[in-house]
Structures are given as structure tokens and as C-alpha cells.
Amino acid sequence: PGAKLTTSALLGVVKDDPRTREEFLRLTR
């Protein structure tokens, strides 16, 4: 349940910074 909220919060940041998205995707594997 909490993971979904965290993901949407992260996605908001990720949209602004593509580099953050790459780091995030690497961490979630």
C-alpha cells in the first residue's frame, strides 16, 4: 500500500529529472 504512494511521489520528481529516473530504475531492479 505504501509503496504505491512512494512510487507516485517519486514519479513526480522523476518527470522533472530524467537522470533521477535512471537511478530509480536501476535501484528497483
Features:
29 residues; mainly alpha; 90% helix; flat
Please characterize this protein's 3D structure.
The protein is mostly helical and 29 residues long. The chain is built from 2 helices and no strands. It has helices at residues 2-16, 18-28. Helix 1 (2-16) packs antiparallel against helix 2. The chain is flat. The relative contact order is 0.14.
State Rg.
Answer: 9 Å
The SSE string, one letter per element, is HH
Low-pLDDT stretches are none
Q: N- to C-terminal separation?
A: 19 Å
> What's the quaternary structure here?
single chain
Mean pLDDT: 75
Strand content: under 5%
* Shape assignment: flat
Topology:
Layout: H1 2-16, H2 18-28
Short précis:
The chain has two helices and no strands. The protein is mainly alpha-helical and 29 residues long.
